[in-house]
């Protein structure tokens, strides 16, 4: 295993760094045994996956989400983890599954999954179906397959007595697909465990030859413009000015001209209503407007989204947007507000160093090298909340499939074994006494 020299220069947390170990180019006897154990447990892992896929756990089916969570309780307790269920009734969500094993060797790991899917209890897509190496079912790759990779990676290590004195927390949220609000409450417990971890690994569905080293953050913005209501025959006059809709057009075009070419930054005005009388429901993101072609528009509202690669990029974009908003057309006004949602998972030094280690694991398993992703191709996820608080983070470590969030969601069944073996070896290498490790925070 080649340990990245960049590990010696991590700067995400003061005085924290990986230590170097001797290079390793092939599987050790213990590692070969781990892979064999994953193989031996493979059929059981697919049976377990089939069982949990057949439990509907659409985010708002609280009973189903809890049932999927509780299905993991006994298996994790059998591995020596302390398991609890964190209720989230105050944000109208089912809750989160947490399993913890306290230890001192190697890096402190946080392994992340989620129990919920986008498929409602009364929908048509409810069952696991398998045809050879291909399986379909709600959440089969997003992300019950990833949850199974976590469980059976740890089981392979436990079967061989190799978890040892590792410090590992498994956290599976019950509302990843539709987070409870406010975020400060629904992600409070996830953030708490993140702040005591060194490395966070998320097991959303993977892609061949690639893992996720960065994700863009997501936030919202609402822009309201006002104008003087008057007969259109006097529009542009000194007394009436341009009206609310012209002011809205000026601002949106200003955003486009100033920011559209910035790498990894996107902003989208998704809903627009304007006219004489305007009603807009921000929660439902829908509205109505009344106006006439011979009346100057009095009000206009746009609701939009903003995606960014770092907090610095987000704040710089917001500052520019505010600047553009403030330069009004005659007799108009405008106000913009911003709403935070998901932070960015930036492509940090730590993530790049971790990528080298994971890629080495993949190559040693014969799965080929891995590269980091293009962040513009990935949306936000629970790892986004965690990434700013750990020294290194990674996502996309689950099995491969496609068509997530659709009734055609599918899983490449053999890739469950590949993802499990990779996870098991990665956990093993990061939690050994002589493994790459982090200094005390």
Characterise the protein shown here:
The chain has two domains: 5-215 and 345-431, Aminopeptidase, CATH 3.40.630; 217-341, Alpha-Beta Plaits, CATH 3.30.70. A hairpin with a 4-residue loop joins β11 (277-281) and β12 (286-290). The chain is α+β, with helices and mostly antiparallel strands and 441 residues long. The chain is built from eleven helices and 18 strands. α1 (29-53) packs across α11 and α4 (144-159) packs across α11. The longest helix has 25 residues, at 29-53. Mean pLDDT is 92; it is low at 1-24. The protein has helices at residues 29-53, 62-71, 73-78, 144-159, 183-186, 188-194, 244-259, 311-325, 349-364, 382-386, 414-431; strands spanning 82-88, 93-101, 105-114, 129-131, 134-136, 166-173, 199-202, 210-211, 217-226, 266-275, 277-281, 286-290, 299-308, 333-342, 371-372, 392-394, 401-402, 410-412. Helix content is 31%, strand content 24%. The strands form five sheets. It has a six-stranded mixed beta sheet with strand order 1-2-6-3-7-16, with helices on both faces. It has a four-stranded antiparallel beta sheet with strand order 4-5-18-17. Strands 10-13-9-14 form a four-stranded antiparallel beta sheet.
């Amino acid at each position: 295993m080649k340990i990245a020299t960049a590990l010696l220069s991590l700067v995400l947390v003061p005085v924290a760094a990986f230590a170097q170990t001797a290079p390793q180019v092939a599987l050790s006897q213990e590692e070969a045994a781990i892979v064999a154990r994953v193989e031996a447990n493979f059929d059981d892992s697919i049976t377990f996956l089939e069982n949990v896929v057949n439990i509907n756990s659409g985010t708002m089916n609280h009973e189903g989400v809890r049932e999927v969570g509780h299905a993991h309780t006994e298996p994790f307790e059998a591995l020596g983890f302390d398991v609890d269920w964190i209720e989230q009734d105050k944000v109208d969500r089912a809750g989160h599954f947490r399993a913890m094993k306290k230890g001192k060797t190697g890096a402190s790991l946080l392994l992340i999954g989620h129990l919920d899917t986008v498929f409602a209890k009364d929908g048509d897509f409810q069952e696991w179906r398998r045809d050879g190496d291909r399986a379909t079912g709600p959440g089969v790759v997003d992300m019950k397959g990833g949850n199974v990779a976590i469980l059976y990676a740890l089981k392979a290590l436990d079967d061989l007595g190799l978890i040892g004195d590792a410090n590992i927390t498994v956290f599976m949220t019950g509302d990843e697909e539709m987070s409870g609000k406010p975020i400060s409450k629904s992600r409070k417990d996830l953030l708490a465990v993140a702040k005591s971890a060194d490395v966070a690994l998320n097991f959303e569905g993977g892609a061949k030859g690639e893992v996720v080293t960065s994700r863009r953050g997501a936030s919202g913005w609402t822009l309201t413009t006002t104008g003087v209501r008057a007969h259109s025959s006097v529009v542009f006059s000194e007394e009436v000015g341009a009206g609310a809709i012209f002011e809205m057009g000026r601002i949106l075009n200003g955003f486009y001209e100033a920011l559209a070419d910035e790498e990894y930054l996107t902003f989208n005005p998704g809903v627009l209503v304007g006219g004489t009388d305007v009603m807009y429901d921000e929660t439902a993101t829908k509205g109505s407007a009344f106006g006439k072609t011979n009346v100057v528009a009095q009000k206009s509202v746009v609701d939009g989204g903003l995606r960014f690669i770092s907090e610095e990029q987000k704040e710089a974009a917001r500052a520019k947007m505010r600047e553009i908003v403030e330069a009004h057309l005659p007799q108009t006004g405008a106000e913009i507000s911003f709403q935070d949602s998901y932070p960015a998972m930036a492509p940090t030094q730590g993530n790049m160093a971790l990528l080298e280690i994971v890629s080495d694991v993949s190559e040693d398993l014969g799965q080929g090298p891995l590269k980091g992703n293009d962040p513009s191709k990935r949306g936000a996820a629970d790892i986004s909340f965690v990434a700013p608080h750990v020294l290194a983070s990674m996502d996309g470590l689950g099995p491969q499939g496609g068509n997530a969030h659709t009734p055609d969601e599918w899983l490449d069944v053999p890739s469950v074994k590949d993802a499990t073996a990779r996870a098991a070896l990665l956990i093993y290498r990061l939690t050994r006494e002589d493994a790459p490790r982090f200094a005390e925070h």
